[in-house]
Structures are given as structure tokens and as C-alpha cells.
Amino acid sequence: MNSGVAGARTARAVVPWTPVSSNGRLRVVDTPAVTFRTIDLARHAALCVELRRDSYACSFLPADRHMGADGGEYLTWLAARIAEEPAGHVHVWRGDEIVGQLEMRVRPGEPPVGHVNLFYLLPEQRGSGLGDALMDFTREFFVSRGVPLVTLYVSPRNARGLAYYRKHGWRLVSPEPNERGMLAMELPLLTRPGGADDA
Description:
5 helices, 7-stranded mixed sheet, alpha+beta, globular, two-stranded antiparallel ribbon, single chain, Aminopeptidase
């Protein structure tokens, strides 16, 4: 099992858990639904490239421009991000199969802002309820760090993604795409000092 692994929860029921341990690494709390584990690039680099390419395809974007022709630029970037924030760069496991990938981190500032670079679930797993488990994990990851606001970018042509984010409380920062043709979205989080959730 990888070091730096995350908590897991079922997609159907709320299971109390703390995703981040005192040393900043993610802990394991397995359930029958999914487990979140820090990405092991030595074993799964090719899969990371495949999932990232598909995320660009879902957004109708050219992957090579962002990843390099062979995915090498992306893997170099991802390795640095994992080293910086292993708890925020995880594969989503269902049993012994990887079914999704999350890439997220806290941007320093006052107050700090969370950012999600990748929120990905395999096409055949979408609509199964597992997306809710990923969203819960994302929220709890940032709440545990005392982050009051999370951002992400989504293609205006990704209608399914836009509808999903809106359903989960994300709002458009502006109705106009930015210079890269992407829509900025944000999710306010209720936090209190120490990272505890108000809810």
C-alpha cells in the first residue's frame, strides 16, 4: 500500500472521518465503496496521462498543448505537485481498480484559496453516485485545512461538468470565459478556526 493515503467513505452514507492526519499526510479509512490513495507515479504514470488526456477530451481541449506530445511535461509537473502536496493528488480506488483521479492544492494567501486542477471519474462510473464521494472528499480536504473558498476551471462546452458543479454548490465567477476559453467557478466553504466544519 502507498504511503500518504487518504480516508475513504461510501457514496450513500455520511461516514465521520478526518482525511488529514497531524503530519499532513492522508490516512486510510477503507469502506466498500472507494479509497483515496496518493498517486504512485512509479506504478501509474501511464494511467495518469491517459486519465488527464480524457479530461481534456471531455472539455474539447487539445491535450498535447498542455501535456507535451508524450505526456512528459504533465508528468514532470505532477511529480512536483505530489511532492508538494501528496494528500491532494490521489487516485480513487474501487476495490483493486482505479476509477478516478483528483489533483488539488491550497494556494497560499490571506485567506488561503483552494484550487482543483483535476476532478475526474471514469466515464463508466459517472452517474453511479461515486462523484458525490469525490466531491465530499474534496470539500473535507479543504475544510480540514481551514480554506474558505475553492476554485476550478471548466470548459463552457462541458455541459455535464457545469451541471454537476452547479448541483454541488459551485457558482460561476463570471459568465464570460477567460483568455484560455475556460469558465472560472468557485465553491464557498463554511469553516471555523482550526478547520472544523460549521455544519
